């Protein structure tokens, strides 16, 4: 039957940006052992009771060129997820592109990526939930504003160029996926940020940064940007035609606003415009309210974690703090549909934001890299057990039309897809790509 329950999710960390001028690729699935232990990793989902997995194929080894793909690993892994009736939330671009694309300054990337997204959807038609491009703001900022990844540039013009290409790629991919599966649902995984001034002279910088943080979702959801941001975009290389493309895309109705929150997502801004981590000031609930007030979409908490420290309970405390924030948001009337501890296993070198290849294991997962459960994994398992039957009973008004993999070919699922296709054809937006 169609699932409408709360989505308790985790994820396989699959970042793959390049550093050192493109000479070194940081492949987290390789560093965390997923390529060899993927069956074990899927077993762990059963152990903690999660049936929703943020997951995606490694773009740099799957997408070999225009119209050329190597689906071998994806066929194995997604075939197994289908067999287990796990619902994947598929991210197709996670902080990097194949070597032949170059980087996010390449103007051909959006249209080419849309073709890749279409090819994936055609090969795995039972997949319904997508995050086409993961954390668009972080991807553009780290690659083209901070100079850390991929093109390793640090200017407003480079940032706007990366941003417009990344968001256009996301929008075009949504359109192509909808052509294949009309009832596809897009769960953006976007970093939720806030900037606090540390003195009166820092207020203009904080206001600018707090406006800029909304740019990816404004463009993605066809929301006209604030006047200062419009000038910023125009001054740094976005044309009026490019801007109007985003304004007429009109795909918001297919989306859930997924937002990520870490202790590093709030920033302290100084009078010279420099920012540093402020630790948690407002917290997830307040910042999510800001984003929800702006976009008025259902919300999913799509990423959080914290390092397990010397006392062994740091991550457990953070899990319950974030969960309490989720309940607070939900009880205030915001439609919350899911929560995610990211990721399933520990990660490697995120203490330097993947800028250095040191092989440092970051104890952030529900399991360590030997696949032994951590204290936070036991707590998350208990949380899922305690709450999975309680939350759906609180409301019958918001029901997600999610079709489980095992039900893809059932008559009711076929009818749902046909109905959604008819609705989309009756309310078309302008073509996103030339015919």
TrEMBL record:
Alphabetical UniProt keywords: Hydrolase
GO molecular function: hydrolase activity, hydrolyzing O-glycosyl compounds
Highest taxon above the source species: Bacteria
Pfam (any one): Glyco_hydro_1
Record keyword Hydrolase present: yes
GO biological process: carbohydrate metabolic process
Classification via InterPro entries: GH, Glyco_hydro_1, Glycosyl_Hydrolase_39
Name of the molecule in the record: Glycoside hydrolase family 1
